[in-house]
Amino acid sequence: MNPDDIFLTRAIELALQGSRQGDGGPFGAIIVHEGRIIGEAWNRVVASKDPTAHAEIAAIRMACASLGHFHLSGCVLYASSEPCPMCLSAAYWARIGRIVFANSRAEAAAIGFCDDDLYAELNRTLTERSIVMEHRALPGALQPMREWSGNPQRTPY
Amino acid sequence: MNPDDIFLTRAIELALQGSRQGDGGPFGAIIVHEGRIIGEAWNRVVASKDPTAHAEIAAIRMACASLGHFHLSGCVLYASSEPCPMCLSAAYWARIGRIVFANSRAEAAAIGFCDDDLYAELNRTLTERSIVMEHRALPGALQPMREWSGNPQRTPY
Question: Is the CB of residue B147 less than 8 Å from the CB of residue A26?
Fold first, then answer.
């Protein structure tokens, strides 16, 4: 087996283990840095009562703790299924270089997960979305941004 | 001031407080349930070395811990800035009913944040994205999904 398939198989094993013990949906993920696993997790939405506890988010957080940095440049994310938009966005914020996944969003949709709908929803305008969204440009709202961008000590991420 | 503006002002105050102490970007968020704040946070990406530590994600996690559930149906998310796709997706997974925000994604882009680009990037096909993405449909990859969907004890979310 090539290294990609070995790591991807590990992500699938985690998906199986986590969902068998009832922690959440059947999803697993690992983060690999220089050929070594530095983060691995399965979905724990149900066990932790946390809707953000997807496997990829948890694996990214573990990998960042391992490297001591909020960026994972050069790392690879292996996911048992195509990341949902929350997890894919997290991978961008983490500056992950490459993502390998086994099951598609269509396969997740077939067992009742809304990943595919969510990609479509994000592409809609504010007024077309199922969550009601209101933009209220309060006076003073820009002050935190102005202070931050004017601070030479700030840490961009 | 109407209640929306009172809560939104609180989110802006959190943005200011968090970024003044160097915890991360100038972003704050609160979750309101039946008129009461049940989660509030500011961005702590830098302080916690965690790229997922956006204000909205942290506020959602706190609110879920408060209600003891992974869904926040009927809750309102107030954010100092338009949520990035990671945080907006988290709001969908949490079944949040309504989102009110003060600054737009264009204003975040103007001070160097990639939210706007990220919305565009998510809408691209796998091969057009800046993160290299590979779909490897391994034999056995669907087993976790099949077991989960065939388990009458499963908890959908």
Answer: yes
